[in-house]
Amino acid sequence: MLRNILGFGLLVLALATGGASSATLAASAADPLAERSLGDPNAPVTIVEFSSMTCPHCASFHRETLPKIKKDYIDTGKVRLVFSDFPLGRLALGASMVARCVEPERYFGFLEMLFRGQQGWAASPEPQKELERLARFGGLSGNEFADCLNHRTLFQGIQERARMAQERHGISSTPTFIIGDGKVVGAQDYDVFKKAIDEALAKKR
């Protein structure tokens, strides 16, 4: 069943069987679909990031640009960043599910680990084993990892949100960022984000 979700077979088989019990998962993540965000909830500007865990441009943004945005805008209370899953493929979907199953306070640390180590686990001939290994660093046991990948509500919720993002915001590629009422597409240079953020902040004054 796990192999189906990670892209090795027919994904519908996992849903047809109803999936495993989520009792174990509930102990580590009561609401895995809850919003995951960085920064002051009352920050004047919100950035919504739509990313896929297997997208190399998304990984590049997290390695090279996000630390600068965090230092200049998130840590200073000007911006809140909301991460929204937009998985491109079943492996990306599986990774999104695993990330949302770790404790919320560990989410962004685990996210960064996935993006920084993307070339290793995403290109592995056995990505399921690599994800399970990484999940241990996020505090998930083997049983919790299995329950997570068989969590029907989480599986459907991530897909539904991606569908809604496509309809409402015209998201068709990753990474894409909604900044205030504007949009930035791709892992652009920091200066592109700075301009968009400063314009959004100016509108709030």
Structure, described:
The longest helix is centred in the N-terminal third of the chain and has 19 residues. The chain has one domain: Glutaredoxin, CATH 3.40.30.10. The N terminus is likely disordered. It is globular. It has 205 residues and is α+β, with helices and mostly antiparallel strands. It starts with a helix and ends with a helix. Strands 1-3-2-4-5 form a five-stranded mixed beta sheet, with helices on both faces. The protein has eleven helices and five strands. Helix 5 runs antiparallel to helix 6 and helix 5 packs across helix 9.
What is the element layout, followed by pairings?
Blueprint: H1 2-5, H2 12-16, H3 23-26, E1 36-38, E2 45-51, H4 56-74, E3 79-85, H5 90-101, H6 107-116, H7 118-122, H8 127-137, H9 142-149, H10 152-169, E4 176-179, E5 182-185, H11 190-204
Parallel strand pairs: 2-3
Antiparallel strand pairs: 1-3, 2-4, 4-5
Structure at a glance:
Helices cover 54% and strands 12% of the residues. The chain is globular, with a radius of gyration of 17 Å.
